[in-house]
Design brief:
Elements: H1 2-15, H2 24-33, H3 39-47, H4 52-56, E1 71-72, H5 87-104, H6 113-134, H7 143-150, H8 159-169, H9 181-184, H10 186-206, H11 212-234, E2 241-243, E3 257-259, H12 261-268, E4 277-281, E5 290-294, E6 307-310, H13 313-325, E7 330-334, E8 340-341, E9 346-347, H14 354-358, H15 366-371, E10 379-388, E11 394-400, E12 412-416, H16 417-423, E13 424-430, H17 436-441, E14 447-449
Parallel strand pairs: 4-6, 5-14, 9-12
Antiparallel strand pairs: 1-10, 2-3, 4-13, 5-6, 7-10, 7-13, 8-9, 10-11, 11-12
Length: about 450
């Protein structure tokens, strides 16, 4: 026994024998190897007085850009999510309104993001509190419990939330429940919602031995207070309204009718977002042609976790091109900030020469960036156009953004196909645009991933 302990101790010491702290000699060596001279001095001076992106910007980007697209879905009007994390909701509503505008031949239309955001925050509150009840017997140090308290609620989301919320609550035109200051500036408001939810969660855990009936009664009382906060911040959600489409001069095209949010959705859009659409992912860090589901990655407790089929990029592009050719927009998400020139609206790997500025190589591939949390899906937009060469191969793509008409290229972002390969992650398409092979693969039992997985990334 003693011999085993001594052997283990020696092995442990040997393992750490080559570990080094930073020493004065090491610092002198670093300084000698990296003395600022010549061009490096100039770079240091420049970085001391300006941003890295400005200095690394490739001057070639100032040349006139090719904005022609061989295939594009018609759209009317650019939306603006302002200082909020609701891009996922704007993108979902933009997909729906495009269908309604084209079919009803409307001059313009915007669907209310504020209406569904109200219920999104209420449903996420219920999801969190119920999860606290479900895990109440686990210690606070449990990884799932810790994650729940760290992430009780957010203003971000995914297409799954759009599908479940629309199915449950319908939609309304923006004029019926327009955005207000709180909706446009969600950060501070959601901070107070999260604080209240954490307080309520601690109270539920304190009564961990209580019956389910008692805990549900307490949860309902807590949700009533959250509802009050939401009404005060966002306004009372509409349950009935009168509406009719108008022409360019603002005159009614038809006689106004009274609708509920559900009847309005059924009459003018009537898409089965929960069953007729498939969510595709390009995650080269995991096996392709497999389905994955992420725990707690949903918006409603009685809804669906985010479920996706992981595919090679060429198969995703095939579905995207088929949808665009049929004049159907798609929910799309990506790592938007990478190599994006906001002033021109172009995303191109050649936009910035970061390696030349720092004199180092950034060599991670897409899979490595995902695994190391260096890259992931951060923003949702509406995919609307592709430019195909004479061989039918995509050369660039265009999305309708929700940052206002003055942002990017007339409210849009244009992406090179090479950028698309590296930083595009999620795409939601109607099942009629994918192959039988894709549909069959989507039927397999999904692998359940934990809520702290790198792919749990709300678009905002």
């Amino acid at each position: 026994m003693k011999k085993s302990i001594i052997t283990l101790t020696l092995a442990a010491l040997a393992t750490g024998a080559y570990a080094q702290n930073i020493t004065p000699d090491m610092l002198q060596k670093f300084a000698k190897e990296n003395t600022l001279t010549g061009a490096n001095k100039a770079i240091h001076n420049a970085l001391s007085n300006g941003s890295v992106a400005t200095l690394a910007l490739n001057p070639e980007t100032k040349k006139e850009k090719d904005t022609y697209f061989s295939n594009s879905v018609p759209s009317k009007g650019i939306t603006d999510q302002s200082s909020s994390g609701r891009c996922w909701l704007f993108t979902g509503m933009n997909v729906l309104r495009a269908k309604m505008i084209n079919e009803q031949k409307l001059n313009s239309l915007e669907l209310s993001q504020n209406y569904l955001f109200f219920y999104d925050q209420l449903e996420k509150s219920n999801l969190f509190l119920q999860a606290i009840i479900d895990t109440r017997k686990k210690p606070m140090e449990d990884q799932t419990v810790m994650w729940l308290f760290q992430n009780p609620l957010s203003d971000g989301g995914t297409f799954t939330g759009v599908a479940d919320l629309v199915a449950k609550y319908g939609v309304v035109p923006s004029g019926v429940m327009p955005d207000n200051y709180t909706a446009k500036n969600t950060s501070q408001f959601t901070t107070f919602l999260k604080r209240k939810l954490r307080e309520d969660a601690l109270a539920l855990r304190a009564d961990a031995k209580a019956s389910d009936k008692v805990l549900q009664t307490k949860k309902q009382a807590y949700l009533s207070e959250i509802y009050k906060m939401l009404v005060l911040g966002l306004g009372e959600p509409v349950t009935e309204f009168t509406w009719a489409p108008k022409d360019e001069k603002g005159k009614y095209i038809s006689t106004p009718k009274t609708y509920t949010p559900q009847s309005f959705y059924k009459e003018f859009i009537n898409l089965d977002l929960q069953n007729d659409y498939i969510m595709l992912m390009n995650d080269p860090s995991r096996e392709y042609w497999k389905t994955y589901e992420i725990q707690y990655d949903r918006h409603t407790y009685d809804g669906h976790n985010w479920l996706y089929l992981n595919l090679p990029m060429d198969d995703i592009k095939e579905a995207a091109i088929a949808s665009i050719k049929d004049s159907t927009m798609m929910y799309f998400s990506c790592d938007v900030s990478k190599f994006f020139n906001r002033s021109t609206g172009f995303s191109d790997l050649n936009n910035y020469n970061y390696e030349d500025i720092f004199g180092v190589k950034f060599g991670m591939d897409k899979a490595q960036r995902i695994k190391s949390f260096d890259s992931g899906s951060t923003h949702a937009m509406t995919l609307k156009a592709v430019d195909l060469d004479e061989n039918g191969k995509a050369t660039k793509w265009e999305v309708e953004n929700s940052w206002g008409a003055s942002s990017g290229y007339q409210g849009h972002i244009i992406m090179t196909d090479e950028w698309f390969d590296n930083y595009m992650f999620r795409l939601v398409v109607n099942k009629k645009y994918v192959s039988e092979k894709v549909l069959k693969a989507a039927q397999q039992k999904p692998t359940l991933l934990p809520c702290w997985d790198p792919m749990f990334s709300c678009e905002d």
